[in-house]
Amino acid sequence: MSSKGKVLVAMSGGIDSTVTALMLHQQGYEVVGITMKTWDYAASGGGKKETGCCNLDSFNDARMAAVEHGFPHYILDIREEFGSFVVENFVDEYLAGRTPNPCVLCNTHIKWRALLKRADALGCDYIATGHYASVYQHTNGRFVITKGVDETKDQSYVLWGLQQDLLSRTLLPLGGYRKTEIRQMAYDFGYPELAKKSESYEICFVPDNDYRGFLKRKVEGLEEKVSGGYFVDKAGNILGSHKGYPFYTIGQRKGLEIALGKPTYVTEIIPQTNTVVLGDEQDLEKEEMQVGKINWIKYDGLQHETEVLTKIRYKDKGSISALLPDGDKATVRFYEKAKGIAPGQSAVFYDGDDVIGGGIIQGVPFGV
Hints:
With 368 residues, this protein is an alpha/beta fold. The chain has helices spanning 15-26, 41-44, 56-68, 79-95, 102-121, 164-167, 179-188, 192-195, 211-218, 222-226, and strands spanning 6-10, 30-37, 73-77, 126-128, 133-137, 143-147, 170-171, 230-232, 238-241, 265-270, 275-279, 285-296, 306-311, 319-326, 329-339, 346-351, 354-363.
C-alpha cells in the first residue's frame, strides 16, 4: 500500500479529471478511478446527441486511462438519486419563481456523498476531483476551500456547500495550476486528443441548453397552467402578456417578445400571480439581499458584522459587502449596488481567496 494513502478519483473522461488521476498516481498515491453516471440524455426528451460527462465515450475514455496506467476503475450508477433530488429541485425552483444552480446542489448532496460512501467501501483515505480550487487546513483546525490560481477557471464558487467531514478527505490537486499547464500535462502523459478535447458548460440533464423546453417536457400541461400571465412595470401597470413566469429569469433581456422602445429587463418574478415585472437596467441594481441555508467553512459561524467579498453568480468578480450573520441566515449589504440578484442562486463569501461560506439567495427586500 502507498505511504501517501489510497484515493478515489472521480473521472468523467474529460481532461481535468483524467489529469487529476494520473497526477496523483504519479505522485505515489494508490489511485482508484470511478465514473458516476448521473443522467440519461434520452430521459430528458431533448433531441441532441449525448455529449459531456454522461455518455459511453466518456466512460470508455476514463476506463482506458485507468487501464493504461494500471489502476482499477469502476462505474457508479446514481441516476435514481440524482434524478429524484437534483432534477426535481431544479423543476420545483423554477415553478417557485427562482433560478436554481443544480451543479451546486449536485456537488453538495449527491456527488461528494456518493464518492465518500464508495471510498469507505473501497478502503480509500481520500476522494479527489478535477475542480480548479484547493483545500487546506486552517490554524483553527477547519478545512477551507480556497480559489484556484487560474482565475478564469476557479470553481470554488460551486463548492461552498461541502461540509467539514467531506473537505477533510478531499484532494483538489488542480487548484495550483492553470488550464494551459493541465493541457500540457495531458500531452506529456500521452493524451494529445484529450488535451484538445472541448469542454461542455451545459447543465448535464439539459443537453440542448434549453431549460424552458426541459420544463415543458417534465411538467405535463405546464404551458396551459401558466398561460395568461402579464408583464407589468414596477408600478404595476400592465405592459403585455407573457408565456408563463417559469420561462423567465431575473436579468433576462432577450426573448421577451415585447417592444417598449428601450432595453427592458426582467427585474422580478411573482409566481403567485403569474406576473413578470420589467424595468430598466438600473432597476436590477440592489443594495441588500437575504441569504439562507448557509454552510460555514472557514469559521464555525460568524457572530459579528464582517466585511467580505460576495459573489452572486459563477462568473461574478464579486462585490465588497457587509455580511450580517444570523445562524444559518444572513443579510448582505453591498457597498456599491449589485446587479441581477436572482433568488435561488448561490451567494458565496470570501476572505481574500478563502471561502468563508455560502448559501442560497432568498430574496431582496422590497424597495432596496
